[in-house]
Amino acid sequence: AQHIGRLIREGGRSFSFEFYPPKDEAGEEQLWAAIEALGPYRPTFVSVTYGAGGSTRDKTVRITARIARDTAMIPMAHLTCVGHTVAEIEAILDDYEAAGVRNIMALRGDPSDGPRAAWTPTDGGFSYASELVELVRGRGTFDIGVAAFPEGHPSSASLEADADVLVAKARAGAAFAVTQMFFRAEDYFDLVDRVRARGVDMPILPGIMPILNLGAIRRQGELIGTSVPQEIADRIQARADDPAAVRAEGIALAAELCETLLAGGAPGLHFYTLNRSKATLEIFDRLNLTV
Ligand code: FAD
After folding, report:
1. Which atom of ligand 1 is found nearest the CA of 106?
2. pLDDT, tens digit only, all 291 positions of the chain
3. Is the CB of residue 16 below 6 angstroms from any atom belonging to ligand 1?
4. Ligand 1: nearest atom to the Cα of 50
5. How many angstroms separate the alpha carbon of residue 132 from the centre of ligand 1?
6. Protein residue with least CA distance to atom 33, ligand 1
7. What is the residue with the minimal CA distance to atom 7 of ligand 1?
8. Which residue among 18, 131, 134, 151 is the active-site one?
9. HSE of 59 in the Cβ direction (CA atoms, 13 Å)?
10. What does the alpha-carbon distance between residue 105 and residue 176 come to, in Å, rounded to a whole number?
11. DSSP per residue, the chain
12. CB 160 within 8 A of CB 134
């Protein structure tokens, strides 16, 4: 009942929320306030990221364990290969198992110099996410999610090669994928088509990030390979002298994207909440999907 892959396939539309491990006490309060505010919407699952370089190992374990123990929500714990030997990864999986976490987002992670820097595997560790998928799969305890990239991973040779990688992760045992943020629905649908053309029917959840700060999204997008289409930037910039209107337009654009995605057959929506509930709930209200 705890396995996300089956819930997405059998449960109709899936809605999920992503959080990150906060740095300090104030951030911790904000996180739990957001979790509390979003809980009544009964997401299919909530996920907690794994800090760059494995820096949040203990926090990610602690937060997902508390969600499993104290809330009605199903947590998914992200896990990366950065800086870990296989033995360390095994120990982290033991912790998750003991904490009642039954879903793992299996990722390679990024080099410390960022997503575009050359990747050097840790001695005794893994080179690719597909190897982590295989290890997690072998345990039999967890359902596994993997990352997908509608515009291609920034170091992929081509969109076709990128689809091959995603398909390899599915064949290694991933039950579903969640995408990087993107702003053109066609990029998502084209990715789904490339995966289906390879004979793989794994559900792919679109990752939704509202543009509340165009400059910040552009900078982040440059790093991770997500572009902000000119027509979208234009709609936001047309309101540049009215912060409330800029925010409202960012929410409206995200809601439009969500509607197009669901109408086109996306199995659900995965919201990047940045540990806040407000923007996500504003999008929800516009979609008229509230329970
Ligand atoms: P992989 O699938 O291993 O791909 C990495 C690169 O290697 C790609 O360019 C791919 O094309 C190439 N590749 C893969 N397999 C092969 C092969 N067999 N031969 C040749 N090339 C290959 N990062 C974090 O640190 N913590 C998080 O919690 C986190 N959560 C994320 C959640 C989502 C939904 C997404 C989309 C990303 C997340 N990331 C996170 C970022 C992620 O770690 C980076 O995007 C990373 O650069 C790629 O991870 P991956 O799992 O896709 O790696």
Report:
1. 51
2. 689 999 999 988 999 999 999 999 999 999 999 999 999 999 999 999 998 776 778 999 999 999 999 999 999 999 999 999 999 999 999 999 999 999 999 999 999 888 888 999 999 999 999 999 999 999 999 999 999 999 999 999 999 999 999 999 999 999 999 999 999 999 999 999 999 999 999 999 999 999 999 999 999 999 999 999 999 999 999 999 999 999 999 999 999 999 999 999 999 999 999 999 999 999 988 997 644
3. no
4. 28
5. 11
6. 147
7. 128
8. 18
9. 18
10. 9
11. ---HHHHHHHSSSEEEEEE---SSHHHHHHHHHHHHHHGGG--SEEEE---GGGTTHHHHHHHHHHHHHHSSSPEEEEEE-TT--HHHHHHHHHHHHHHT--EEEEE----TT-TTSPP-PPTTS-SSHHHHHHHHHHHSS-EEEEEE-TT--TT-S-HHHHHHHHHHHHHHT--EEEEEE-S-HHHHHHHHHHHHHTT----EEEEE---S-HHHHHHHHHHHT----HHHHHHHHTTTT-HHHHHHHHHHHHHHHHHHHHHTT--EEEEE-TT-SHHHHHHHHHHT---
12. no
Tell me the residue type at 146: V
Dihedral sign, Cα of residue 94, residue 53, residue 23, residue 217: negative
Is 18 part of the annotated catalytic residue set?
yes
Using CA atoms, how far residue 166 sits from 9, 103, 130, 221, in Å, is 18, 18, 9, 20
- Is the complex ipTM more than 0.95? yes
- Written as six digits, the tokens of 41 are 């919407």
Let me know: does 143 contact 5? Beta carbons within 8 Å. yes
CB 140 within 8 A of CB 167: no
